[in-house]
Design brief:
Layout (H helix, E strand, L loop, with lengths): L2 E4 L5 H7 L4 E4 L5 H7 L5 E4 L7 H5 L6 E4 L9 H6 L3 E3 L6 H17 L1 H9 L19 E4 L3 H14 L3 E4 L10 E3 L3 H7 L2 E4 L13 H4 L7 E4 L8 H9 L5 E4 L19 E3 L8 H19 L11 H5 L1
Parallel strand pairs: 1-2, 1-3, 3-4, 4-5, 6-7, 6-9, 7-8, 9-10, 10-11, 11-12
Helix pairs in contact: 1-11, 5-7
This protein binds nicotinamide-adenine-dinucleotide.
Nicotinamide-adenine-dinucleotide binds next to helix 5 and helix 7.
Length: 319
């Protein structure tokens, strides 16, 4: 009988998709020792973000054929090592896009309207601060999008529909844009001309610390930065300096260089930043959608079909 290791908390609906094809072995999310023991005779694993899935773990799992990641980013899996061992890495692209785009939009609105700051003012009996630090309108403001994939495109559509915001787009791998979005000649052009810059690109060797002092220095002092992609895409020390010196208006971060961020992380002390704990995709509806998609990939593999979303497609080509 095939075995699947369930390495994250999930619902009976999700388990029901895999149950006809395999014995399901559950571990407590976060228990790396238990995982290392129980994965030894498993063919598949349903995996979230908590575990860096290293070559050492793969070596402890000689029967493993499928790593199914509940999400788009597979940066906690050593994909090259998995491919070398003939292990499929599955992900769920596009399934959580709507939810993350809504989260980025929520950050844009909260930043523009000073929602978190004003909430604190009312609670601390500073009602008169309503005239001290005025919010901004969104109507007609330029949205800079870096990474025009599933999430970036949806956010741009929502901002256009709700606030008549034109988009300025940098994505070296996308050639066709809708007529209301303008391609930027360079990433610099996006940082220089946008009122909001929202990041929606993957973490790769090319994009790590891409948002540096050099790019931040191009932003308008009234502009905001939003990151729901991966924390390491931003140089956090540089961002701290720019926010602290009020060289940019503010930032909204759902993701951090180290998660959870250290209590000593200086960004946590700033008033002009709003923070969420990597919850961009964590609505009730989205968690279920994503887990069902990841489970379906495992079921398809056991049925002998090619799963819909194979991240390491090179593996299929070599089979
Ligand atoms: N906060 C969360 O909970 C959450 C949830 C889902 C995804 N994410 C992150 O958001 C990212 C985007 O997700 P998506 O579903 O839109 O992915 P996607 O693959 O559909 O889109 C990513 C886009 O980035 C572009 N890109 C790649 N390198 C680039 C570069 N150097 N400069 C500019 N653009 C570049 C690609 O061409 C692609 O169009 C994911 O990689 C993931 O890390 C975060």
């Amino acid at each position: 009988m095939n075995k699947v290791l369930i390495a994250q908390k999930t619902s009976p609906e999700v388990l029901a998709i895999m149950e006809p094809h395999a014995e399901l072995v559950t571990i407590k999310e976060g228990d790396a020792t238990d995982l290392q023991e129980k994965i030894a005779d498993c063919q598949a694993i349903l995996l979230g973000t908590w575990l860096p899935f290293s070559p050492e773990i793969m070596d402890a799992a000689p029967m493993l054929r499928v790593i199914s990641r509940t999400g788009v980013g597979v940066d906690n899996v050593d994909v090259a090592a998995a491919t070398a061992r003939g292990i499929y890495v599955l992900n769920t692209p596009g399934i959580n896009a709507l939810t993350v785009a809504e989260h980025a939009l929520a950050m844009i609105i909260s930043l523009a309207k000073h929602i978190v700051y004003l909430d604190q003012q009312v609670r601390s009996n500073h009602f008169r601060s309503r005239r001290l630090y005025l919010p901004t309108d969104l109507d007609g403001k330029t949205l800079g999008i870096v990474g025009f994939g599933a999430i970036g495109r949806l956010l741009a559509e929502k901002c256009k529909a709700a606030f008549n915001m034109p988009s300025l787009v940098h994505d070296p791998f996308v050639s066709e844009l809708p007529d209301w979005a303008k391609p930027a000649g360079s990433i610099e052009e996006v940082f220089e001309n946008s009122d909001f810059v929202s990041l929606h690109l993957p973490l790769t060797n090319q994009t790590r610390k891409m948002v540096s002092s050099r790019l931040l220095s191009l932003m308008k002092p009234t502009a905001f930065l939003v990151n729901t992609s991966r924390g390491e895409v931003i140089d956090e020390d540089a961002l701290y300096e720019f926010l602290d010196d009020k060289k940019i208006a503010g930032a909204g971060l759902d993701v951090f260089e180290h998660e959870p961020p250290s209590p000593n992380n200086r960004l946590l002390s700033l008033p002009n930043i709003i923070l969420t704990p990597h919850t961009g995709a964590l609505t009730r509806e989205c968690s279920l959608r994503v887990a069902k998609c990841a489970a379906q990939g495992i079921a398809d593999f056991f049925l002998g079909n090619t799963p819909e979303f194979v991240y390491n497609r090179d593996l299929i080509k070599t089979k």
